[in-house]
Amino acid sequence: MIDAIHHVAIICSDYARSKDFYCRILGLPIIRETYRAERASWKCDLAVGATQIELFSFPAPPPRVSRPEACGLRHLAFAVADLSAAIRHLQQAGIDVEPVRTDELTGRDFTFFADPDGLPLELYQVR
């Protein structure tokens, strides 16, 4: 019935800041960017392999509940071939990265960092 994840939607509090983070720092290319005047809202479709991130802005969105963790989507994980290089890239951009952990079930290394609104993002070593 389901073939793949098509997209993940993220609502940000500062569109320019989040667009810069996802495009310049994470390197995600823009597929299309649309301003919807009737909603006073930007929508930016970003490519992540065969999947997309839809980055939305809305006037005055409520903050995300994350600690203690609430029921619902926990985090977004990105597959990386070289975890150490990805961590160095983020740190050079001034992004705080948690210490590397090892997934006890797969033996793969991973770490967490956050987007400008505190959304938890994961880097997961795939090779």
What is the secondary structure topology, with strand pairs?
Layout: E1 7-12, H1 15-25, E2 30-36, E3 41-48, E4 51-57, E5 76-80, H2 83-92, E6 101-102, E7 109-114, E8 120-125
Parallel strand pairs: 1-4, 5-8
Antiparallel strand pairs: 2-3, 3-4, 6-7, 7-8
Fold and architecture overview:
This is VOC family protein. Residues 4-126 form the VOC domain. It holds the Pfam family Glyoxalase. The chain has 127 residues and is α/β, with parallel strands linked by helices. The chain folds into 2 domains: 1-60, 2,3-Dihydroxybiphenyl 1,2-Dioxygenase, domain 1, CATH 3.10.180.10; 74-127, 2,3-Dihydroxybiphenyl 1,2-Dioxygenase, domain 1, CATH 3.10.180. The chain is built from 2 helices and 8 strands; from the N terminus they run βαββββαβββ. It has a 4-stranded mixed sheet, covered by helices on one side. A 4-stranded mixed sheet has the order 5-8-7-6, with helices on one face. It starts with 6 loop residues before the first strand and ends with a strand.
What name is given to the CATH topology of the largest domain? 2,3-Dihydroxybiphenyl 1,2-Dioxygenase, domain 1
Strand adjacency order, main sheet: 1-4-3-2
The number of distinct structural domains comes to 2
CATH superfamily of the largest domain: 2,3-Dihydroxybiphenyl 1,2-Dioxygenase, domain 1
The averaged pLDDT comes out at 93
CATH architecture of the largest domain: Roll
Helix content: 10-25%
Content of β-strand:
35-45%
The low-pLDDT segments are: none
Organism: Gluconacetobacter johannae
Protein name: VOC family protein
Domain VOC: 4-126
